[in-house]
Amino acid sequence: MKKLWLVYVLLIGIFIVYVLNYKLQAQSTEPWDTTGLRGNIEDTYVMVTFQSGIDYWKSVLKGFEDGAEELNVSVEYHGSTQHDANEQMTVLEQVIAKKPAGIAISAVNSKLLTATINKAVESGIPVVLFDSGAPDSKAYSFLGTDNYNAGIEAARTMAELTDAKGAVAIVTTLDQHNHQERTDGFRDTITSEYPQMTVVALEDGRGDQVYSRQAAEWVLSQYPDLAGIFATESNGGIGVAEAVEAYKGKGSSPRIISFDTDKGTLDLVKEGTISATMAQGTWNMGYWSLMELFQLHRGLADEPSAYSHNELLPVPDKVDTGIDVVTRANVDQYYAQ
Amino acid sequence: MKKLWLVYVLLIGIFIVYVLNYKLQAQSTEPWDTTGLRGNIEDTYVMVTFQSGIDYWKSVLKGFEDGAEELNVSVEYHGSTQHDANEQMTVLEQVIAKKPAGIAISAVNSKLLTATINKAVESGIPVVLFDSGAPDSKAYSFLGTDNYNAGIEAARTMAELTDAKGAVAIVTTLDQHNHQERTDGFRDTITSEYPQMTVVALEDGRGDQVYSRQAAEWVLSQYPDLAGIFATESNGGIGVAEAVEAYKGKGSSPRIISFDTDKGTLDLVKEGTISATMAQGTWNMGYWSLMELFQLHRGLADEPSAYSHNELLPVPDKVDTGIDVVTRANVDQYYAQ
Description:
2 copies of one chain form a homodimer. The first copy, chain A, is α/β, with parallel strands linked by helices. The first copy, chain A, has helices at 2-29, 56-71, 85-97, 110-122, 147-161, 177-193, 209-222, 234-246, 263-271, 282-302, 332-335, and strands at residues 44-49, 74-79, 102-105, 127-130, 142-144, 166-172, 197-204, 228-231, 255-259, 276-280, 318-320, 323-326.
């Protein structure tokens, strides 16, 4: 009896060992480790901005983090606290010194940052630019809003809001290139597509709420029948909204289109003072920056000089991250971002 | 003795079971199945082209397949055999009927294909367009060459080849929009950036080798001092090369810049008859199309109506897949594609 019991125990034991081992092997032959896009958690990808505390970057960072989580890599966020190229340059130097797996940077000043960006690329660190580019740098890609196209979208939205009739004005920031592009896209589209609309004024709001309010007040005093105002950035949009509110009952009630999705602007969209605001594809900027950097890092890890001649790059040259039109109808989903 | 032996066997058995089980659990808690981008091999992503047999698509398909392999999903390739919108529409209908996880399509005719593309999107299949778009369709994204920018690059390359001096000509295909954009980018850049260069002729080569040869012969007869010719597509480039070869010794030896990287063109670059050709980012078109479709498919799987208003899309609006300049110095790596 005892012997038989011993044999049973042995057979059962061997069977258990066999089953477990089989399960183990079955798992090992699953190709988890060879296919599936997955990086090394010790690889750190860094996002660098300026005015690093503002809300605008939050959704970009969320996209960057979402990508990193999916790919099992790490993320750090750095930036200059001010709108200051020298400060950002110092931050970038510090980031380069740590030899990260990749850097996504929004350049506060395209010219002043170019040399430091090139230094990163030359030392074998993949760099992509987002939101605000540095076209003459050696960075591999740019991901951001096509601002001329954003102006086109704003013009078409304005035409919908005004039945494609009447005088419209633009309040912009004259010395910033991206605002110039938004202005051009808006003006060119009104001129070419809407014969019953006219752009009657182009004012400098200097990216400032008070200046923009004053600019809008002046335009309203000159054109009491104004059908709409396009503000190319959000401080200006809030200033314009104040002017239009104060003007209520004194003339027309011009429709306002603003830019971006900070809380102040969204609140005004929700209450109807601003009819629409143009939301940039900020999550896309972060997510696809991470995807491109991951792709570049793998290539450079395989062959350190792979992209030295900027040829056959495995990432796009330029990514237009898109524009969404936010109105009262869909404003709620933008608060969550 | 026997009892002791039995105890040993039991202890060893329990120990082995414990170790194996521990290893098994350790593997299971590895986050392979929760992080890491990895799809389902049963999800099929379909690439649809026209003139499906031509070399041009090979590198696009390679990018599409590379992406699918990394993400553990399946790929099919379909297309009309001819340059025929009705045939491509039928192919697309058949693809839609199989309810694939996503479709990347290059539209032979943007207007005629729009309704069928919209049908796919409305039935919940993610669609992106590559190489040749359908801007008025509901497709989520376009990935392709910025042809105006390609013209700029060609102009700058021409300026390098000719020391930025002299008369240059363009041989193009007048009725195709992308060729018009290449022409405009080239002409605008020569005019604005190179005061000592002039575009003296713009000829229609009809995308045909013989017509392009004749066009180039005519230009050479009119401008014996011609410094260069830009052919906006590859058949034309080969025709122009024939004309210039036949003209040798009779006047100047104009530099030729062509487009694309088919074997005929690369051979002429290698032997020096064509000085440079503009390579499109075809691998990027395929790879990043797959990445975008994968991303869209996941979102729609989670929430079928997620992108019905085209808002907050998790993919870029437009991707410029880039342009590389191929010369004798780097021509060899383009044969491999």
